[in-house]
Amino acid sequence: MIQKIAKKRNNRLAGGGLFLLLTLALLGTAGVPEAAAQILDRPVAIVRLTKTVNIGQREIRQQTELLERQLGRTLSRENREEVLEAQIGDVLIRQAAERAQIRVTDEEVQQAVQLQRQQLDRPVSESDFRRLVRDQMGMTWEAYLEELRTRLIQERFIMERARESFGTIPEPTAREIRQVYEENAQQFTNPAMARFEHLFFDLRNRDTAAQQAARRRAAEISRNIERGTTTFQAQMRASLDDTSFSGGDFGYLVRGDEEARRRLGRSFVETLLDLEEGDVSGVLESNVGLHIVRITDRRSPRLLQLDDPLLPGETMTVRDQIRGYILSQRQQDLFQDSIQTTLEELMEEAEIRRFPEHLDW
């Protein structure tokens, strides 16, 4: 819900030079080895804060072409100048962070890798993610990790410079929270969902004979429940002592949850969500095993009010989520302002020569 609101807001930044700086935040000079960028290449800028770096035409051209592929359009001469300024800023912040002896640990780098994987549109394995890095960013895995480490160091450098300012970010007012809610009320909805208990027969890591035995046992229990010779609740209690299956509360299954469909199987999810409250199913098969389910709660889609929990049983409300969203946006705005202020100060301190005529190719 909040992600859709943030996406609308971020689209308004797409025309500015700062957008290009942030777009390049995981590109930098990664696609061009430093030595190759400086040998037999026409300089577009020479930058020195603590050491001299030549930014070559080849490097800027490759970054421009990569951005053009990502954006699906040709960049103008003005856009090329923005790419150059972003690269100059990148060099300055790298050198300033190195001078300040900012460090990050290997664990922090791995946490950043996992965060980037989670931000993709779909779940991917580590091998698939490495393939994306290679194919879409044109980087080896080792170069990607090193570049990510550099970006984390740069972010920490900016954050430490703005530490006092981050402590003074004002809390969102009730009026601000309500305004965001009212402008985006249609985004705050709960989809259809069902909560269920289940008798579960795990088929994972079992040989054929064990799987067949589990299927026979599940079918037997289901028949007995249907005939009335036992009850679902009696079998839930029996599962405490019977090692052939387990019983328990699954929680809520939400319609449209792609992760649940991937993990359990589309057919299982859709069949379960078609059951009514109080229904006891026959034997249903998922990607992980066999289930006999009883629907304990069934909820239709509805709009959420400000003080409604995001999901049944959760403590976080719509109000809490909007408050966090507003604070996050203020932190992002402050971080971007800090980047701009830092760059202005570093550009005053550094020696920079630009050769704009070399932006023509």
From TrEMBL:
Coiled-coil zones: none
Name of the molecule in the record: Periplasmic chaperone for outer membrane proteins SurA
PROSITE patterns linked to this entry: PPIC_PPIASE_2
Database matches in Gene3D superfamilies: 3.10.50.40, Porin chaperone SurA, peptide-binding domain (1.10.4030.10)
Pfam families: Rotamase_2, SurA_N_3
GO molecular function ontology, one term from the record: peptidyl-prolyl cis-trans isomerase activity
The keyword Isomerase is annotated on this UniProt entry: yes
Organism annotation: Alkalispirochaeta americana
Residue ranges of every copy of the PpiC domain listed in the record: 191-297
Signal sequence annotation: none
Source taxonomy: Bacteria, Pseudomonadati, Spirochaetota, Spirochaetia, Spirochaetales
UniProt keyword GTP-binding, yes or no: no
Protein keywords: Isomerase, Rotamase
